[in-house]
């Protein structure tokens, strides 16, 4: 018996990075996968083939999570195809880092729209099915900067702090239907998103991480598998930091 045997997990932004690692971990724990992303890189098919070889179904759909009509349509089609959605991971996210004085309206709006509104649209669409099922697990990928703030990331930090408020509110709304809603706040994780940081920025992070290393996407994925499994049935509305002790 594996942690997520015979479940259906919908993960956004899982074509690469942390989302792909979550898909990988979930597939190894027995989950069937539905992935919504804007685009799928060439090496995605090889990963999907490995998951299929484990006996999992893998559905990859090109969906922009900021497009409400498209989200509704694709979630409905997914439910028609899979019969249910047990787990939703709102992972898709972007950064447009700038100091406040240089931040354009568009930088603010884009980050809020993808990170916060996109997660709202996905959650609203998927929770209808979870409410009917009277069961579900929703995991929102926030960030430590949503808790502690970060110079140069006011838009991103606000979106990730917003996601924590959203998580707690929805946890209260959906608890009566046996749906748990939790957030993961990753710290500094080595992905394409952080590959753009300068050596100086990287060194600054290492200085404040007690475990003295960057996290891996797999570190985040293992926490997500726990929150997606029965092992976390009495945990809701929480923020689990996966950050090497950066904030405590
Ligand atoms: P990546 O940029 O590597 O992957 C994000 C994925 O989301 C991409 O495939 C991207 O597609 C997709 N995406 C972006 N916008 C949309 C959209 N509108 N609709 C559908 N898919 C979209 O990011 P990471 O893997 O590093 O990050 C994953 C999550 O973890 C994010 O929410 C991020 O904020 C969070 N996080 C990351 C940390 C880190 O250190 N890396 C730390 C803390 C939190 P496309 O290629 O088209 O942009």
Q: From the helix content, strand content and strand pairing, which structural class follows?
A: alpha/beta
Looking at the structure, what is the overall shape? Answer: globular
Arithmetic mean of pLDDT: 97
> Which runs of at least 5 residues are low in confidence (pLDDT < 50)?
none
Largest sheet, if any?
A: 7 strands, parallel
| Chemical compounds bound to the protein | NADPH dihydro-nicotinamide-adenine-dinucleotide phosphate
Strand content: 15-25%
Helix content: 40-55%
Summarize the helix and strand pattern as letters. EHEHEHEHEHHEHHHE
Number of helices: 9
Instruction: Please provide the count of β strands.
Output: 7
What is the topology, as strand order, of the major beta sheet?
3-2-1-4-5-6-7
Distance between the termini: 34 Å
Can you tell me about this structure?
With 248 residues, the chain is an alpha/beta fold. The chain has 9 helices and 7 strands, in the order E-H-E-H-E-H-E-H-E-H-H-E-H-H-H-E. It has helices at residues 17-28, 44-53, 68-82, 105-133, 145-148, 154-174, 192-195, 199-207, 217-228, and strands at 8-12, 32-37, 58-62, 87-90, 136-141, 179-186, 239-242. It has a 7-stranded parallel β-sheet with strand order 3-2-1-4-5-6-7, sandwiched between helices. Strand 2 (32-37), helix 2 (44-53) and strand 3 form a beta-alpha-beta unit. The protein is globular and about 50 Å long. The structure holds NADPH dihydro-nicotinamide-adenine-dinucleotide phosphate. NADPH dihydro-nicotinamide-adenine-dinucleotide phosphate binds at residues 12-13, 15-19, 36-39, 64-66, 91-94, 114, 118, 141, 143, 186, 188-189, 191-194.
